[in-house]
Design a protein that fits this description.
mainly beta, 1 helix
Length: 118
């Protein structure tokens, strides 16, 4: 189905790459003529492990799963071009200590971060 949303820079989106898994990222640029977005990717623990491979077990960007019902993601400096047709919807990403986090439990497509890059 077609999705009709207005996307600006600093909007979190969910998207697919080559129809595969769904990813989360923040729009950092819009290319109107190419009908695409420049997106800085955020990764779940599983997605990051696929890229890094030999991740240490004693270091984590994510709290222990029993401490939170939100899915945690970690931002990165990896940038990709995403066609507008690959966007599947919005994502809502909150810093873990944001007071709004308590109000969004149970909402779909909500993620938390425990750290971030500037």
């Amino acid at each position: 189905p077609d999705i009709r949303i207005h996307v600006t820079t600093n909007t979190f989106i969910r998207f697919t790459i080559e129809g595969a898994n769904e990813f989360v990222g923040i729009v950092i640029g819009i290319k109107v003529a190419e009908r695409s977005f420049t997106v800085r990717r955020f990764f779940s623990s599983t997605q990051l492990h696929l890229i890094v491979g030999n991740m240490r077990n004693d270091v984590s960007f994510w709290p222990h799963p029993s401490h939170s019902t939100l899915s945690f993601v970690c931002d990165s400096d990896i940038v990709v071009e995403v066609a507008h047709s690959s966007v599947v919807g919005l994502a809502f990403v909150f810093y873990q200590t944001d007071p709004l986090v308590r109000q969004v439990h149970g909402m779909a497509n909500v993620f938390a971060v425990s750290s971030f890059l500037n």
